[in-house]
Structures are given as C-alpha cells and as structure tokens.
Design a protein that fits this description.
The chain has two domains: 34-166 and 201-272, Rossmann fold (3-Layer(aba) Sandwich), CATH 3.40.50.150; 277-419, Galactose-binding domain-like (Jelly Rolls). The protein is 26% helix and 27% strand. It has twelve helices and 20 strands. It has helices at residues 3-17, 22-33, 35-47, 68-73, 87-90, 132-145, 177-187, 189-194, 206-215, 230-236, 238-245, 266-269, and strands spanning 58-62, 79-84, 99-103, 116-122, 146-157, 163-164, 169-170, 218-220, 255-262, 295-297, 311-313, 321-324, 327-334, 340-347, 351-357, 360-367, 371-373, 376-378, 387-395, 412-419. Strands 3-2-1-4-5-9-8 form a seven-stranded mixed β-sheet. Helix 1 (3-17) packs across helix 2 (22-33) and helix 10 (230-236) runs antiparallel to helix 11 (238-245).
Length: 420
C-alpha cells in the first residue's frame, strides 16, 4: 500500500474515531494495511484442506474491504469482483482489467445465477444488521450465484464462544443490547465510534447456522465446522472429539470455518479434499496442485490428485503415472460445454479397451501389438454445465514385464485423458 493510500486511510479513520483517538486510528489503519497478509494466511489454510482453483476462474470476494485479496489473486483469474457495503474502505480497492469493485448489500447481490466459481465470505454474515432474515437471504444469494461445482469459503464467529473479537471483550453477546453498549462504552469506547451499537453484530448460534445452510440447499464438505470430520477431530482433540460423537461438535469452536457447496454436488466435490488423494501421497510432484483440470497430460505433470485406483508410476523418470493395471479410474472437470472423451495411449500387446464415463459405457476399442491409439467417444446426455467426470478405462488383458525384475501387472500405457 502506498504512502498516499496510507494517509487517506488515516483521514478516514480520524473521521470515524476523531482526531483525539490516536490508538484507535492507528489500529484501524494498520488492520486494513495488513489485509493482504491476513487474506494470504486464510487462503493458504483453505488450500491445505482442498484443491481450490482460482486460475482462469470467476471469484467473488464478499466483504472485500480495501481489496487485499484481489491484489493476491486478481490478475490470475478470469474475473475478480470485490463487494462490500462499507464504502469508507471499499473506495481504496484498486480496479484493473481483471478486478472490479461493487458497493452492495450482501443480502441482495447484483450478479447473475451461477456467476462465480469461488466465493469468499470471511467474517461477513455476522455483520448483516437485519439479523436472521438477512442472514438467510445472504445464504440464499450465495447459493444462487454459485456455479454448479463452485465452492464458498465461509468463516464467522461462534455466538457461544465467550470472547467477541469485534469489541475485543468477553461476553457482550450474552447481554441485552443496552447493557452490552454500556459495557463496551466503559471498556472499549472506540468500538461505538465505528458502530452505533453492538446490535450491529449478529453472531450466529451453531444450530441456526447449520439448519440455515441445509435449508438453502448448501452443505459443508466436512462434518464439523472446523473443516474436519468426526474421526479426525476425535484423533486430534480427544475431549472435544468425544463431544462431537454426542452431537455437540458444532459448539466448542471460536469461529466456524466451512467449505460450502451445492448439496447435489457434495459427493463429487469431496473428491477435491486433499485427504482423499492417498494413491500418490509422499510422491514427487513437479508443480503445486491447485485444482482439477479437463485434461490429464502425463508428459506435463503427475496429476496424481485426479487419479483413483489402478495407476503405476512411470518406470524411468518417476515423474508421472502412465502404466495402468487392467482397470484404472481418473477424474476430469469441465467448466464449459463438453461432448467427448479422448484417450491417447499405447498398447504393447493386442488388447481390448472399454471406457465408461460416470458409470455409462461410452465406447470400446481393439488394439494391436505395438499400436498407439487415440479414440474419441461421445459422452451421453447434456453436458453444457460444469461437471466433474469419473472416467474408467478397462483392458481385458494384462502382462508382467519380461526380465524378472519388474513384477507389476500392466496393461496399457496412457499418455493423456481429456474431456472436450
């Protein structure tokens, strides 16, 4: 952030808190100047959990503030939109050909259906001053603008956690509004210079948030709002894990962290969780992995994250999977209209190959000894929306390499698999 923008932020802060509140002004300016680093940490933590693709995608950043997240990813995406109700900070967003900023209400988003592939909603929903009706409307809007295979990365504080980070005090959410405001005026009066009342902060209770998400046709990818399932939680946190087994797993968290998707897409979207990909665990990967692709090209990278069972490492350079067993599974994602699946491979011996897409047989091919093959198969049904395909390749015959050293059971060498 430039010195000129820093001075402008300071002027805005003085208008909010008054020129005599030097500490409050300094903390407010510093908070927004550090927004890029704060967003980098949040993104990194979510990327540790799931394969989240930004490159070439459409991203909405709700509650974007000064646009720190947009500065991180804005030029690598097809479209980045930062949206915020608070103009005093939104005015510092830096538009570019790939970055836009919109002043709007989170409960009435001015975007078309399915407009975004990734939606960031970091600590936004509790600031909707209309309370539960506006929060429900907000979740409904998130579902509406989310593409069929999109992800919502949502965080919000837990009402039942005794410390409130907004007022930097303990217990104000448990008090009637008038008492909460008196308490805050006594201990942290600068809060009430930025917010007219603690009534502007509507912290969510676990039961309401869970039922609200479900009622909107959304669902978390994990069982608990800390991006963990019950088994993992029990292993990492014994006491709280036992509470989760009793149905109380949503209560002990300071803040809810969730990856939300369309309920109808949950099973397929769970394939993007990092923990699911154990076939290539601890194996070399040339490039960092951020998302699924529509083409697996083994000459380019390993693509282990998109592979299911049935693949072997290339026996020479160890860079990627090429040889398959008699049956192998992979997953490909297309965000545009898709009609065909294409497989490029080599058969060392005569064989018969069949291919299924989402469990439906789409084609068969007889190969000859030493033959390179590259068939196209028509994918049945309408495929004009984003879709995550399960492609299975089956060979009728297999062999063990000659020489006695390599005892793997092989069938076909695959160079690439693509939906197009």
């Amino acid at each position: 952030m430039t010195a000129e923008r820093g001075r402008s932020l300071e002027e805005v802060a003085k208008g909010i808190f008054g020129g005599d509140a030097e500490t409050a002004v300094e903390e407010w300016v510093q908070y927004w100047q550090n927004s890029q680093a704060r967003n980098q940490e949040l993104i990194s933590r979510f990327q540790d959990l799931a394969l989240i693709g930004y490159k070439g995608g459409r991203v909405l950043d709700l509650g974007c503030g000064t646009g720190g997240l947009g500065e991180l990813i804005g030029d690598s995406v097809t479209r980045y939109v930062g949206a915020d109700y608070n103009w005093s900070v939104l005015q510092f967003g830096d538009p570019t050909p790939h970055r836009d900023f919109v002043n709007c209400d989170g409960a009435v988003l001015p975007f078309s259906d399915g407009a975004f592939d990734v939606v960031f909603a970091f600590d936004v929903i509790e600031h909707l001053v209309g309370g539960k009706p506006h929060q429900l409307r907000f979740l409904s809007e998130l579902k509406r603008i989310l593409s069929p295979l999109g992800m919502i990365l949502l965080t919000t504080p837990n009402f039942w956690y005794p410390y409130d980070a907004h007022s930097q005090l303990r217990f104000p959410q448990y008090l009637p509004t008038q008492l909460a405001d008196r308490y805050i005026r006594w201990r942290n009066p600068s809060f009430l210079r930025e917010h007219s009342s603690f009534a502007e902060i509507k912290l969510l209770k676990p039961g309401f948030l869970r039922s609200a998400i479900r009622s909107m046709g959304l669902t978390p990818l994990h069982e608990l709002p800390c991006c963990l399932d019950r088994g993992e939680y029990l292993r990492l946190h014994l006491i709280r894990g036992l509470l989760s087994l009793l149905g109380l797993g949503w209560y002990p968290h300071a803040e809810f962290w969730m990856i939300l998707v369309h309920e109808s897409a949950r099973e397929r979207m769970q394939l993007k969780l990092n923990k699911n990909w154990f076939y290539e665990r601890n194996q070399p990967s040339e490039n960092p992995v951020h998302a699924f692709e529509s083409c697996i090209d083994f000459d380019r990278a390993s693509y282990g994250h998109q592979l299911g069972k049935g693949w072997h490492w290339h026996e020479r350079d160890k860079r990627g999977f090429r040889w398959m067993e008699k049956q192998a599974t992979c997953y490909l994602e297309s965000r545009t209209e898709c009609r065909y699946v294409r497989i490029s491979g080599f058969s060392q011996y005569k064989n018969h190959v069949s291919v299924t897409v989402d469990g439906i047989l789409v084609g068969e091919h007889d190969t000859h000894s030493g033959e390179h093959f590259e068939p196209f198969y028509l994918i049945p049904g309408e495929r004009d929306r984003p879709h995550l395909f399960k492609v299975e390749i089956l060979a009728t015959d297999s062999f063990i390499p000659e020489g006695g050293i390599d005892q793997r059971t092989l069938s076909l060498m695959i160079f690439s698999v693509e939906v197009c």
